[in-house]
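Researcher: Final request for today, and then I'll write up notes for the group meeting. The sequence and the SMILES for zinc ion follow.
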Amino acid sequence: MVDVKVLKDSAKKEVESQRKRLVEIAKWMYENPELGSEEFKAYELLTAELEKQGAKMEKQLLGIPTAFSASWRGKTKGPKIAVLAEYDALPGVGHGCGHNLIAASAIGSGVAAAKAAKGLPGEIVVVGTPAEEGRGPSAGSKVILANKGFWNDVDAAIMLHPATRFGVGGKALGIWQLKMEFKGQTSHAAASPEKGINALNAATLAYMATHMLRQEARRDANLVIHGIITEGGMASNIIPDRAVCEFGVRSSDEKYLVTMVDKVERCAQGCAMAMGAQVTVTKHKLYSSMKPNIPLVKVLYQNYIDQGVTVDDWQETQAGIPMASTDFGDVSQKCPSTGSYIGIGPENVPGHSKQLADCTMTKEGLEAMMVGTKALAMTIVELLAKPEVLKEAKEYFSTH
Ligand SMILES: [Zn+2]
Ligand SMILES: [Zn+2]
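Model: Predicted protein-zinc ion complex:
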């Protein structure tokens, strides 16, 4: 019988012994931010580090140039636990989403857990998932990996994200993107308006019609519709023959989201028809909503609590309103998953800001990274040592 407490203590110690190196990695990335799909230097740094730590590497994972997997297998076959790394930065604000800490924590927890769990069956895998911020050909790489079946044989996936508080779990909104291209007929706006078909009028009407959908929105489904008009004519004395709108539609309810995307599309078609214009709507699903896994949430939560940090009550987090979308949502739809967040700075620091990037380098930020890395490492070894928890997580996954 394995003593889980002993295992977790040893995972914590292994993380602590890497402190200097993890700080170096986070700092190097802070100083060398790279945009999504172009994270070549970070990719080199992280894969070299994992290779040095004896992981079996799969580089350019499933054809994605800056994705990787690094795995350690236990003595015998068993569950596969994944910890996810992100390493893309943002234009203008560098690591303003703190992905440098996500990368360091994934490396640190994977390596530490592999060392601590040596005698156990199963597999630990650090998965490098680029372009979380949705830029370039590898945009939303977790979705690409999901579509290629990568997460199907993973028993649990965990990660952390920098924030201004500590917490575990929470929801994320699914998102679809729509582009409406209206086609009309140009004509002299004063001399021969009767010969024109105003595409901008059709687009404006569609823009307003989508607004009007909001009143009937299901409140419990957290519907968000946001849009802009990206093209609306060339000169004011020409009736525009082309106008383009782009919309994002989000909800925490996957099925309802599809219904609302259809309704937004109908707004475009109906308004085009009303104006005698034509419209082409292209739509695609960007990210799925987050499917919570409460058994995993409880384990990861306890591993934060046990370190004495103040953590948001997980039930309150779970009941909270989801704010954003992430490609981690697509992982959660394929295997039991949970995220967590770490408090790296004061409450008033905005996300996607230079200030948040700077918080990743403060004493408080780096300490939070260490706490999070330990919580992840403890959770990995706990899941490997307690098959009953994974069984519960799987049951929850298939029944919710
Ligand atoms: Zn972000
Ligand atoms: Zn982020």
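Model: The pocket of zinc ion (ligand 1) is lined by residues 97, 133, 352 (CB under 6 Å). The two ends are 32 Å apart (CA to CA).
Researcher: Thanks, that's everything.
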